[in-house]
Amino acid sequence: MPEALRWEFRPLKRTASLADTTCLGGAAKPKRCEVFRAMLLTKDDDGLSSELTELDEEQLPEGDVTVAVEYSTINYKDGLALGGNPGVVRDYPMVPGVDLAGVVEASDSQDWSVGDRVVLNGWRVGESHWGGLAEKARVKSEWLVPLPEAFTTQQAMTIGTAGYTAMLAVLALEDHGHTPESGSTVVTGSAGGVGSVSVAVLSALGHNVVASTGRPEESDYLTALGASEVIARSELEGAARPLGKPRWAGGIDSVGSETLANVLSCTDYGGVVAACGLAGGMDLPSSVAPFILRGVTLVGIESVEAPHERRIRAWDRLATDLDVSKLESMQEVVGLSDVSRVGEDILAGKVRGRVVVDLSA
Predict the structure, then answer these.
(1) Helix (H) or strand (E) holding 283
(2) 86 and 205 housed in the same domain
(3) Which of 181, 198, 250, 348 has its CA 20 to 30 A from that of 12?
(4) What is d(CA 124, CA 97) in angstroms, rounded to the nearest whole number?
């Protein structure tokens, strides 16, 4: 964690802001802006700080839809933002949170009406546009996706960006011909958010899932999600051979680096691997051997700016292919005051599954 970062939890306060200017409806009849709670990241000469505070609705950024946020999440990227890691947050002050689910409160868009249930993943919210770790969010209408009837807003955030990304990876495997009959499917980082949903969805679709994890104590958890086999992360560590013994026909990797290289090395002829994460590093110390000698396909998964149609497809498939009864075991529900602590935990690899933030708590 950068030395200059200051973690601060202060009593809720009003920011020294627009309360006495833009929130006035005239000298005779002062107007009170509605206030809401938010986690706010600020930067000054002393470094970065994070605090739970109150903001005025007038301070929300530009957008044509205002959402009353009911639930948000803490993802790995949120942990980086909360930890002050450079390259994540583009502008300050910033409300972090790359996910949100809630109800449309006001709309200037013909696509959305007051009362619509919506979900948002990505689009640089929490990075360059205020995100979901607040009771209100004002966003662009094209960033929103209708929340399937199958899910509550809390369940939608148990899925979150991680689960939506996992579904994009599953769709990529299918689009490249990978089926349960093709052979086993390996999932790396399987106890994390992307991994947990990947295991649950793949097993529901009939795949033989090999779950790789560095936390052997999570074996029962992964088996309950549907994993047929749990292997140690160490089996995929170290320098990868150009070609290893074939062990699976496909895979979903959220780790990168040596782990992805070893997954590719052990992928059978004609197999396909979807890469969607870099928790282990951005490098890929592999060779061309899996690609030119076994015809392996490596598919990159990008979720932040994915087209609207692909997002709809992913959420529709989650509604039909994810057993909602398994979501309960994946989630930890916290309040806004717990966000900073959990941000540290997620970077340290201490979080299992998904962390859901209840904005009413």
Answers:
(1) none
(2) no
(3) 348
(4) 9
What is the residue range of 18's domain? 6-147+326-358
- 242 upstream amide cis, omega within 30 of 0: no
At 25, the pLDDT band (50, 70, 90 cuts) reads very low
Residue 92 lies in a domain: yes
Cβ atoms of 6 and 51 within 8 Å: the answer is: no
How far apart, in whole angstroms, are the C-alpha atoms of residue 42 and residue 22?
21
Beta strands in the chain (DSSP E): 6-7, 35-44, 47-56, 65-73, 99-107, 117-121, 136-139, 145-146, 185-187, 209-213, 229-232, 248-253, 267-275, 297-300, 331-334, 354-358
Residue 52, both tokens: 């739970």
Average pLDDT over residues 213-219: 95
User: Using an 8 Å Cβ cutoff, are 18 and 35 in contact?
Assistant: no
At 199 the three-state DSSP class reads: helix
Contact predicate 173/167, CB 8 Å = no
137-184 pLDDT, tens per residue?
999 999 999 999 999 999 999 999 999 999 999 999 999 999 999 999
